[in-house]
Specification:
mainly alpha, 1 helix, 85% helix
Length: 123
């Protein structure tokens, strides 16, 4: 075989290999671009999901704050009512004591009995 023929075959093989490598490199770039697009789509979907989850969390926190405020308002109202009742009870005790004092002045010793209750015994 002539040398020029061998050189020509080697050059042809090198050209074919170079074209194959170039084509393969282009396919790799396209594959990477497709993978990058997939990543971008997934990132967008996750962002949307995260935004939705954040909105739900914000709504839940607002509901909890509202419920806490309602409970605190009911507790404050109950405490006010309890103070009012305690005040009324004290007024009744005071009125009862005044009546006992008047009764003692009118009839000394009438309210004292052996049982110490301040009420007359039943017959």
């Amino acid at each position: 075989m002539d040398t020029w023929l061998i050189v020509l075959i080697v050059i042809a093989v090198l050209v074919v290999l170079a074209l194959a490598m170039r084509k393969r490199g282009g396919a790799g770039k396209e594959r990477k671009a497709a993978q990058a697009r997939d990543h971008l789509q997934e990132a967008k979907a996750r962002t949307v999901a995260a935004d939705k989850e954040q909105a739900l969390a914000d709504e839940q926190a607002a509901r909890a704050r509202r419920e806490r405020a309602e409970v605190e308002e009911r507790a404050a109202q109950a405490e006010r009512e309890a103070r009012e009742r305690a005040g009324k009870a004290e007024e009744e005790r005071s009125a009862a004591q005044q009546l006992q004092d008047k009764a003692e002045k009118l009839a000394p010793g009438l309210g004292r009995h052996d049982d110490g209750s301040g009420t007359p015994p039943r017959r």
